[in-house]
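<instruction>
Derive structure tokens from the sequence
<data>
Labelled lines for chain and fold:
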Amino acid sequence: MLAPDAWGELVTGRESAGRAVMATGAHQVARNLTRFWGEGATLVSLPGAGQPVLLGFADRRLAAVLVLVMRRERIQAVRVIVDPRLLELVSAHLPAPA
């Protein structure tokens, strides 16, 4: 569940504009998530320690890594990482699409 004051952040990896807050408030964040990660996209949870992580696929290719920043039992922020260097590194460790 999103916190009422949740925000969404796009992390591009570019030096000049590496991060940009794209949405604030639970309603806006949820709206953006469904717009970009709704029909045709696949989100896969990545187990591990720390903050929950989702891998976002479009057309069977890794398009983003979504980090859910938790505060108590709610999602405080969604960091959508689209840095091509990071995506290439993560993709190298994934099995090839069937």
User: Anything to note?
Assistant: The two ends are 33 Å apart (CA to CA). The first strand starts at residue 2 and ends at 11. The mean pLDDT is 89.
